[in-house]
Amino acid sequence: MDWGRVKNVLIYAFLLLNLVLGYQLWNDLREQVDSNLDIASLENNIQKAMDDKQIRVLAKIPSDTPELPKIAYRIVNGEQGGKMINLQTTVDSKLIFAPRDLASALKTSLPDIGNYRYDEAASSSSVFVLHPLVDGKWPLFKIDLRLYNSNQKIISYRLQAIEVSQLQQEKPQRVLSASKALGNLIENFLPVGSVVTEVELGYYGEVFDSDAHLPAAPAWRFMLESGKEYYVQGINGDVISPNTEKAKE
Known about the structure:
The protein is α+β, with helices and mostly antiparallel strands. It has helices spanning 3-40, 44-53, 99-106, 178-188; strands at residues 56-57, 67-68, 71-75, 84-92, 116-118, 127-134, 138-141, 145-150, 153-159, 162-166, 173-174, 195-204, 214-224, 229-233, 239-240, 247-248.
């Protein structure tokens, strides 16, 4: 046995291990710094309220405040809406993480699926939830396409198809910052010990049994580790509670 060669191999292996561990440590420290910077964007009184209520924010707090208009949407598939439909050909459930491949596999049954985005926070092991996108970017929360999974195959779906339009004479407005929306939640709505795991901007809509056009406004969605969700209207700051489903000042 060539002990010199074995020794060199062991040295290189330890060096490689140290590099991997060093990179992991650096990445963890960078994420911690980024998290601290996010929290620093909150006002001092909000940070104090976080400490007092033992609230943690694990999600990145977006800094962008785009100008968005209110929109209108209408249910277009009538009585067929909301019915579970079996797929003629099942699809590998792993494709949910590959949007282009998923759209290609389901284009016959769901030709518009390319305009939907997977919502991991709202999904489970048996049901994948997707939301339609406004302008190809902003999810319309509460309006769902549900893909049902069994034995690692997508076997059926449930869809409430909609048609989106712009409200007449409705001008885009600058949305409330995520930090201000979160601050309001922390001070007035979140229970003690809450852990915020996701912050995302989209539109808030509800499904009603109506053929009329329904309004939807930009809204920040805040997901908690407990599974509860809060929505903050992006224009006037109203909060929609998951318990009452009513807007509050």
